[in-house]
Amino acid sequence: MKKVLVTGCAGFIGSHTCEKLVSMGYQVVGIDNFDDFYPRSMKEGNIAGLLTSGSFDFLEGDICNPEDLNKLARDVDLVIHLAAKAGVRPSTSDPDAFIENNINGTRQLLKWMHKNNIRKLVFGSSSSVYGNNKKVPFSETDNVDFPISPYAFTKKSCELLNYTYHYLCDMDIVNLRFFTVYGPRQRPDLAIRKFIRLIKSDEPLPVFGDGSTSRDYTYIEDIVDGIIKAMNYVNAGTDVYEIFNIGNSTPIKLSELLTLLYEIFNKEPNLNYLPMQDGDVNKTYADISKAKAILGYEPSTTFKEGLQKFSAWLEEN
Asked: Given 26, 130, 151, 297, which residue is catalytic?
């Protein structure tokens, strides 16, 4: 395998994945539509270094548009599909846009792959598919028929769509359910980056709920390691259709997160408690035993280490 297509290549996870692939000697083809959910300049900055590499070819385009897909190189060996309209809360106010971008975009990509005889896919799904699952930790065999946001619904729908193409078109596909990714280049609307900005500027920090909600925060380097391991697995396998949790398996309460952040910046807490938001889940907690056993996935960054690395990056940027 020599050439990999990465959709959503200018995003948070996508840009890190492309850099890792290039560092490993792969030729990478990237596509991104620079969705206006956050400033274009941030995404341009994410891939600025890649654009100077002779191993990275970039197309500004939309996977929902077959004409854009047809501009891509067709000799790729594998696709890492990370492009999606993001955000649990925004999806509750504009579900049509999420259905069009996430479900139809995935459908168009799969059609393009089938047409061009590209049969290997790693898909970026989400822990949000578990909804308010009562059983913890969340396992890949748990029932995920009860999503509580349109974003979660689209990710579950894409997993089902992927299975259909696996079954009908002989595609080898791995779905990765990412758990609360954080680190350098994180979207500015996401909790940790937003919290750090508010703490540094001595502004009150909004806390939705009583602080008891928890998330299985996973550092970006560990997420990328999971993607690479899944890529190697699907590339080597035949008749593959799998779902893996890619998380840290160590949930952190919101109250614990806030305590750590205020300690890192040596500031006194300044909190504004607000009601829970629609679509927010109470807890995420990954059972990663399957990913460990099959992929050899083993997250290595503790939450405190990850926060310190992320904070240092923000100070420099």
From this structure: 151
